[in-house]
Each structure stands twice: as structure tokens, then as C-alpha cells.
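Might you be able to review the protein record set out just below?
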Amino acid sequence: MLLNIFRINVRNVLKMSSIERIKQNADLAKQTIQELKNELNFLNKEYNNILARELREENARLLAAVEEAKAHLVKLEVKNGIPQIPVPNQTSRPVTTTAVGSSEPPKEEPPKAQKEPKPKKDKKPKEASLEPPVDIGRLDLRIAKVEDVQKHPDADSLYVLKINCGEDKPRTVCSGLVKHVPIEELRDRTVMLLCNLKPVKMRGITSEAMVMCASSDQGVEVLTPPSGCTPGEPVHCEGYTRQPDPVMNPKKKIFETVAPDLLTDATLRACYKGVPLTVPHKGAIVAKSLANVPVK
């Protein structure tokens, strides 16, 4: 019995000592591997340093060889009379040469005279634009005669008129007078026409002017020029110079600025700021019955 126990203990001791030896060997192997890694890193660094030093030395030798070759080339060119051109930003002074066999020293070229800067011309100030004031004088108001009236084919509220305003051919005018003025009252009628609005298309037909009317909630009346007027006669307003634009620029809103001051007065005369619109030596432009209402 005691012999068996002794044998078991011996086997256990042997097993434990074997495990300990394995562990020790594993630790030793790890340590050895780490030392080998460190040694390899050191060798790599040393190799790189040696390689870099050799490359620097080789570059220095090559640069020296290049400079020697350049110097030799320059000597050969000088010997054969080839002039040397200075290189920009070159620190050393360029070599100047003379022709082969010449005993005279090279002549220095005189410095080129610098051109004096030309005096700047004074810019002339731009002349201020002489645009006339925005008033009734900018509107091209003329006497005109309606030669033909038709209903607009695509707009129930519009007439299409052919109006003679003293030009080579009559102008086409679209006017929204259908609900206010019977067609018979417009035929062969003399009117006051605003002729320098920008032409616009109204339901497919280009309108080239505007028939001036007295307008209010009570109704709309076409203004009537004095008797004896002929198509093309200009309409004036005393105190304002008549200098109409060929075509009023919509962006400048000339008509929109003037329109609030266009009104009929208590005696039915069409006025601008209280001054009647007239045909010189013939009379004023008047409404039929609408007093103190806008003209448009």
C-alpha cells in the first residue's frame, strides 16, 4: 500500500516538473524572439544609415563631376570663340570671351538706358448725362384720327383701331373701350394719341399707341381735341418743354411718374399739374362731361 502511494507521488512530481520546464522553455523562447526582433530593427536602421550615407557621397561625387564637366565645356567654348550667355540668378559672374586670337580684353557693354515712364494722361471726367426731367414733355402726345375700328378677334373687351397720327401709315392700336364707347362713336373720330409707348402684343395683335381718355368710376370718355386740328399736330403744355423720348423705356417708368398729375379740371380741360393740354392757336383738349378725373 505504501509503495503504491509513493509511486503516485513520484509520478505527480515528475508531471509537475515537466510542466514547469515547458513553461520555462516557452518564456525563454519568447525572450529570444523579442531579442531577435530588436536586433533585426537595429540592423535595419544601421543598414539604412549606411545606404543613405553612401547615396549622399555618390551624389556629391556626381555633382563634382558635373561641375568639372561644365567648367571644361566652358573652357572649350571660350577657346573656340563662343560667347557665354549669363544665366539668370547666377551667383558667379558670367565668363565673357573674345574672338580667337584677339589680344584685346572684352569690352563691357554700357548699361541700357531705362525708358522713362510715360506720364499718365488725365482721364477726362465723364460728362453728366443731360437727360431731361421726367414730366409731360417726355410724352409724345399728338392729334390723330381713327380711320377704322374692328372688334378684336380674340378679346371681347378690345377694339382694334387703325389711327392716322401724321405718319406714312396708320398705327394699329388695341383699346379696351368696348364696354364704354360704342363703335360708331369711334369711327372717323379725332383723338389725342400717346405715341411713344413701347409696342406691346395684346392677344396676338401688336398695339403701337394709346388713345387718351378721361376715366373714373362713372365711366370712360375719349378726350376731344379742338376743331380744325389735323393728324400729327403736337400737343403742348405751357411751361414744359416738349422733348419726347423716341420710345419710353419701361424700366424708367416715365409715364407711370407723369400719369398721377394728368387730370381733367373743373372746366373739363385735360391738364398736367393744373396746366391745360393744348394745340397751339386752336384750343384745349377736353372731356365730354367728366370733371376732376384721371386722364389715361
Observations:
- Confidence is low (pLDDT under 50) at residues 94-103.
- Residues 29 and 35 are 10 Å apart (CA to CA).
- The chain has three helices and 14 strands.
- The radius of gyration is 54 Å.
